[in-house]
Amino acid sequence: MAAVDELAFHEFEEATNLLAETPDAATTSQSDALTSRGHVAVIVGSGIGYGAEEMEEEGDKILLLQEEKPQVRFWTFDYYQSFFDVDTSQVLDRIKGSLLPHPGRNFVRHHLRNRPDLYGPFWICATLAFVLAVTGNLTLVLAQRRDPSIHYSPQFHKVTIAGITIYCYAWLVPLALWGFLRWRQGTRERMGLYTFLETVCVYGYSLFVFIPTVVLWLIPVEWLQWLFGALALALSAAGLVFTLWPVVGEDTRLVAAALLATVVLLHALLALGCKLYFFQPLPLEHVIPAPQATPLSPSVLLPTSAQSVTT
Amino acid sequence: MRDLKAVGKKFMHVLYPRKSNALLRDWDLWGPLILCVTLALMLQKSSVDGEKDGGPQFAEVFVVVWFGAVTITLNSKLLGGNISFFQSLCVLGYCILPLTVAMLICRLVLLAGQGPINFMIRLFVVAVMFAWSVIASTAFLADSQPPNRKALAVYPVFLFYFVISWMILTFTP
């Protein structure tokens, strides 16, 4: 088809030739197109639909190219609606992908397929914050069952602290990571990196594995808690590393290693901080108040001092 | 009087959830306000013992309920639901009624002293009322979502009432 050949890419050296023959080529191609259309329309019965479809497709393609970017502004509702364009099955699939990291499969390319969503990260962070506060409180209840000298209180302020910590981690760390990768890309001019939303998505979904872990931390066996924590951290960090590896692997060895080490370290710090703050090991409450145990110390010291006075 | 009657009628609709549009068509926020204030007042500790890590303060309950409801509504609209903002707030607020009743019962039960049986009764009551709240609000809200996203819209409602139930269950006078 002459029309398609004319639209094909020509080398720059032939530009003058092209310019010379464009007027003629235009008319010939148009007439060719007309005749070919007429040809198709007249002769072959089944070809009518086919030819018409192709012409329509080209017309559609031209239309699409013209209105490629609809230019949705960030202060309209539709801008944010595009980030929630996921179905239940897609969210579940992404969660499964984060739970089982695979070295060959990049989370962003394989599961997100360049359509990041904000639903997953937001609600996973909210669930994690509430589950942390609730199970932390439950451990206190269970501890009080065993040892009535521990003072129980609902500790509602822990919900606020949990929420702020988790949300700050899940949004500020991806921001820093994305900023750093952009800066490195600026100096290196390598392959495409992830958008900010994709980074937030990766981090948000990687936090999902901590939700069942936190519930399992209710079991008061110390070594089992550390084991679950280590497992969760390994899964979560592996997911992050496998996702970041293609982007970072093209950088120098030193920078790549340092970046991945920092990512894993921050993740480990978060897990450790949550474990120590929300699930304080019991002997700590009876001993000299450590900095993390200060909210409990006034109420704990009172019963213990009362006990010592009576005995 | 007319407003009071409307509020009372909506309470009845929540207690016996049927597929009626009364809650959705003429929404009002009086009911949710009354319920929220009642819940927040009942969640205050009766004894002032100067503890900082006690139960939720009055303002905290308000913040949890109203910001929670707004967040769920925004989530529902962003997922493509065709329910209006205030209709959704109205439904979520009114469906706190079973949990407020649970709070009343818990306070009465706690007057009899604390203990494991006491806790079991409270747990049972709160669990039943939590299920009632979730079912009531889902009956009204789920229809407004596209079918392949219903679970995504209902899960935050579940989380919201779970948090309120936990606040009620952990209340100690």
UniProtKB/TrEMBL annotation, chain A:
Keyword Acyltransferase: no
Record family assignment: Belongs to the YIP1 family.
TM regions (residue ranges): 118-141, 161-181, 193-219, 225-247, 254-278
Gene that specifies this protein: Yipf2
InterPro entries in the cross-refs: Yip1_dom, Yip5/YIPF1/YIPF2
Ranges for domain Yip1: 99-271
Keyword Membrane recorded: yes
Official protein name in the record: Protein YIPF
Pfam name, any one: Yip1
Location within or outside the cell: Golgi apparatus membrane; Golgi apparatus, cis-Golgi network membrane; Golgi apparatus, trans-Golgi network membrane; Late endosome membrane
Keyword terms of this UniProt record: Golgi apparatus, Membrane, Transmembrane, Transmembrane helix
GO CC entries: Golgi membrane; late endosome membrane
Membrane topology: Multi-pass membrane protein
PANTHER family: PROTEIN YIPF, PROTEIN YIPF2
GO biological process: vesicle-mediated transport
GO molecular function: small GTPase binding
Species name: Phodopus roborovskii
Predominant subcellular localization, coarse grouping: Golgi
UniProtKB/TrEMBL annotation, chain B:
Keywords: Golgi apparatus, Membrane, Transmembrane, Transmembrane helix
Compartmental location: Golgi apparatus membrane; Membrane
Keyword Nucleotide-binding in record: no
Pfam family name, one: Yip1
Residues that span the membrane, as ranges: 27-46, 58-79, 91-113, 119-141, 153-172
Ranges in a coiled coil: none
Record domain Yip1: where: 14-167
Membrane topology according to the record: Multi-pass membrane protein
Record-level GO cellular component terms: Golgi membrane; trans-Golgi network
Domain of life of the source: Eukaryota
One BP annotation, GO: endoplasmic reticulum to Golgi vesicle-mediated transport
Transmembrane helix as UniProt keyword: yes
Family: Belongs to the YIP1 family.
PANTHER family membership: GOLGI MEMBRANE PROTEIN YIP1, PROTEIN YIPF6
The protein's name: Protein YIPF
Native source organism of the sequence: Phodopus roborovskii
